[in-house]
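REVIEWER CHECKLIST
Item 1: Sequence provided? yes
Item 2: Single chain? yes
Item 3: Sequence as submitted:
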Amino acid sequence: MLKFNYHNHSTYCDGKSSLEEMTLSAIEKGLSYYGFSAHSPVPFDNDFALQYSELQNYLDQTRRLKTKYQDKIKLFTSMEFDYIPKLSEDIRERAEEYNLDYIISSVHLVNSENGLWFIDGSKQESYDKGLREYFGGDIRKAVKAFYDQTNEMITKVKPNIVGHFDKVKMHNKDRYFKEDETWYRDLVIQTIDLMKEEDLICEVNARGLYKGRSNDYFPQTSWVKELAKRNVKVTISSDSHKADEVDMLFADCWDHLKACGHKEVWYFDDQWKPISL
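Item 4: Structure as written out by the authors:
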């Protein structure tokens, strides 16, 4: 089984292991391809993203490690770009400036008239507070804003990989809505159709599952099946933040994709290629 992972975080952003520690673990666990993908810098104070002051060091170190370990693993330099309207829309230009190998783009912060709703992280309380403060507790309005922003990202940025596109569900836990409700399904299907239209790769992200924050992958099983029906390209991500997470649930996810009807999965080796499942 060919092993790869293009969505990973280190101590340059919110990860707990250094770039080299992550690399050595990837080698030990038998990965053939591994991508560094720090959370891109954002124009406000935060404790989760790569800082502008460390940007060049990050780029330099990833390229040094590429050379150092080139006989053992093929490494790539990337970033996971937060798409936030009016704050981070120049993603393609920055990716070209940084000479990145590929682009992941995701929505972690949902723009509203009143502020940014943080739908990620370990604290359910932050999700609930933002829902109340920024959307008046209107879950349909909030979730629609998340998917509208995701759709705008897909059509404007056209990233190589669309990150965890249904992560808005993570802290919901069936409290505010059920994922089989018609209005929610319609939003998801619209996003899936857009990914197909733009010919993008959708990651199947294992982090929520192995961290115990979700009982399914991102996206959930029913949406993975819809991706298969439409022949949307998929790749496998562990979204690792520690060295021992670089291949978490890789084999399980491989089998999961097959069970959901996918015939192939996509990997990057200087260009995107499919491999049969």
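Item 5: Key structural point noted by reviewer: DSSP finds nine helices and eleven strands in the chain.
Item 6: Recommendation: ____
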